[in-house]
Amino acid sequence: MDKELQTICYQTVAVALAVAMSGCASQAPAVQSNASAGDSRVILACTLASQCVNSFDSGGLGPMRYVGTPAQARAVLQATLAEFPEAQIVKTDGLYLEVVFTTALGFRDLVDFRIDAQAQRIDFRSRSSIGLFDFGKNRSRMSAFSARFEQNTRR
To answer: What is the pTM (predicted TM-score) of this model?
Structure first.
C-alpha cells in the first residue's frame, strides 16, 4: 500500500471512530443546587443506570448518614474527599458539592453530593461524563467512598 493510500485509510478510520464514539456520549443533566432537600430524589436521579449510581435506587448503595450539624457533615465529607487523590471539588454551594473523579485512564466521572440537614444524610449521584457504560466503576467508587466516610464520622 502506498503512503498516500495508507494516510487516507488512517484518516477514514479516525473519522469513523470519532463519529461512533460521539454517538455513545451522553450529556449529564445539570444539578440545581438551590432546590429543596425534598427534591433530591429527582435532582440526583440516574438517567442511564448503566453509567450511574445514586443513593436512592442503586440496589444497596444508600445515603451516607451523619450525626451533628450540616457544617460538621460537610467538613467530614471534604476531609474524606481529600483522601481520594483522583477527586477534585469543582463547585460548592451551601449543602451541595460537585466533584470530578478522574480515573487512571483519564475518564472523568461526576459526583454530586447533597446534604439533607433535616434527615441527617448525604445523598449522592455518581455518573460517567461520557459513554453509555461505566463497567461498575461508579458503584465500586461510591461503595468505597461511603465506607471511608463512615469510618471518618467515627473519629
So the answer is: 0.73
